[in-house]
Amino acid sequence: KEAVWAEDRAPWGCESSRPGPSPPCVSPQTRLQAGVGYGNTLSCIRTVYRRESVFGFFKGMSFPLASIAVYNSVVFGVFSNTQRFLSQHHGRESEASRSRTLSDLLLASMVAGVVSVGLGAPVDLIKIRLQMQTQPFREATLGLKPGAVALGKQPVYQGPVHCIATIVRTEGLAGMYRGVSAMLLRDVPGYCLYFIPYVFLNEWITPEACTGPSPCAVWLAGGMAGAISWGTATPMDVVKSRLQADGVYLNKYKGVLDCISQSYQKEGLKVFFRGITVNTVRGFPMSAAMFLGYELSLQAIRGDHTVTSP
């Protein structure tokens, strides 16, 4: 009875020490990719909203929100400065002769992807652990020692700081980089399909007579680049989410290949495209706003009157 009670209560088991309503547990994307018992995107959204209200879509977001400004500024800065270094190395030091080559864009994007993983892996891990800490309860109770069902009564982690401390204590510093291999396989090609389409779409949309792309062109090119990048990154995003969600109660996967093998054997090829709609749809406005903010910030800092590409 205790186990059944805890299982039924799991979607609501994220109480915090703060007064007021408890924040709900998980986002649709993470639950679709790493959770069980959910259908398509619309079904998942309805389930989360019915059980957890609108706050359920923002569970585990405090830590990412606190770090996103630093994260994005570093990634965009690494991309821009790597491009600038490569241009100078190839003798294209003047703005007029600093033509963008595909090889330069590719290398700069790959460097940005590697740096993003170093910064973003712990942030993603904390977010997913906070979102998924109650979801695996039903499966976990089957293999845990007697008395472990009490875990279902309260969250494993009380917040981001407690989550970090628990992971470091139980898994060591290496535990903060769980799923880093899958994240590298997602982000390195993902950033190549993020920055390169943005640059070329910008150049394609902008008339030759203009000295730089307009804000509208930046917004459109950035949104399309984001949709392309997130859409194509979905299969490895599923693997990364599952590896990072793994370990709240028990460890199911030994690594990237084992996660891919188990997921395919149990759920078929379609499992690697879970959340592709959410990823693609959210990728457009998110990336459009990000690129536009970046370009307009550069314009304001430099005192330019035209938007310039990174």
Q: Class in CATH?
A: Mainly Alpha
Q: Which class do the helix and strand fractions yield?
A: mainly alpha
Helix share, percent = 55-70%
What is the 3D form? globular
Task: Give the N-terminus to C-terminus distance in angstroms.
Answer: 59 Å
Kindly report the name of the CATH homologous superfamily: Mitochondrial carrier domain
CATH fold description: Mitochondrial carrier fold
State the CATH architecture: Alpha/alpha barrel
Q: Helix count?
A: 11
Number of strands: 0
Percent in strands: under 5%
Rg over CA atoms, rounded to whole Å, is 22 Å
Number of domains: 1
* Average predicted local confidence, pLDDT: 76
Q: State the oligomer.
A: single chain
- Main β-sheet, in a few words? none
User: What are the low-pLDDT stretches, counting only 5+ consecutive residues below 50?
Assistant: 1-26, 94-98, 136-153
Helix-strand layout with pairing:
Elements lengths: L1 H8 L18 H7 L6 H12 L9 H28 L12 H31 L4 H5 L18 H12 L8 H26 L9 H31 L10 H12 L8 H27 L8
Helix pairs in contact: 2-3, 4-5, 5-8, 8-9, 9-10, 9-11
Structural summary, described in words:
This protein is mainly α. The chain has a single domain, classed as Mitochondrial carrier fold. It is built from eleven helices and no strands. The protein has helices at 2-9, 28-34, 41-52, 62-89, 102-132, 137-141, 160-171, 180-205, 215-245, 256-267, 276-302. The longest helix has 31 residues, at 102-132. It is globular. The model is unreliable at 1-26, 94-98 and 136-153 (pLDDT under 50). It comes from Ursus americanus (American black bear). It holds the Pfam family Mito_carr.
